[in-house]
């Protein structure tokens, strides 16, 4: 892991997130060269957040294939992806964000997120590796229920 991969957050700089994830549904179409990850996040504005605070989610090192908010495709003019973050200006107080992302575990040398280790595909998400697979409020104080489905070629991944 390179020094540039480490993000330091000092306690004095801590701010509660504007949105929390209550539920996350993930489907992984596993392949060492091209894994497709479909995520569906239920997000709610936190009581501490300003009414106009944007939805901000962490995300890096993946290709974004599609993005939808509340079941409708989200045009690029409604969101910004910069500095390893997705920002949606007007997400309401409760929303469902669906994303389809693509990662390449065989080329992931960070040992964070989803990566290949020999003939296996493994994940390392603590403390902030989840953001290398899909958008998420990737911080230890955001807890939610996860439902995960893994699909893969049975001969390759018995």
Feature tags:
158 residues, mainly beta, six-stranded mixed β-sheet, three-stranded antiparallel β-sheet, 0% helix, globular
Task: Work out the strand percent.
Answer: 35-45%
Which structural class is indicated by helix and strand composition? mainly beta
Termini separation: 29 Å
Order of strands side by side in the largest beta sheet? 5-4-8-2-1-11
**Share of helix among residues?**
under 10%
How many alpha or pi helices?
0
- The coarse silhouette is globular
What characterizes the major β-sheet? 6 strands, mixed
As a whole number of angstroms, the C-alpha radius of gyration is: 16 Å
Mean pLDDT: 91
Number of strands: 11
Residue runs with pLDDT of under 50 for 5 or more positions: none
Q: What letter string, H or E per element, gives the SSE order?
A: EEEEEEEEEEE
Describe the oligomeric state of these chains in a short phrase: single chain
What report would you give on this structure?
The mean pLDDT is 91. This protein is globular. The strands form three sheets. Strands 5-4-8-2-1-11 form a six-stranded mixed sheet, with no helix packed on it. The protein has a three-stranded antiparallel sheet with strand order 3-7-6, with no helix packed on it. The protein has a two-stranded antiparallel sheet with strand order 9-10. The chain is an all-beta fold. 0% of the residues lie in helices and 44% in strands. It is built from no helices and eleven strands. It has strands at residues 19-29, 35-45, 55-58, 63-69, 72-73, 79-82, 85-88, 94-103, 113-117, 120-124, 145-151. A hairpin with a 2-residue loop joins strand 6 and strand 7 (85-88).
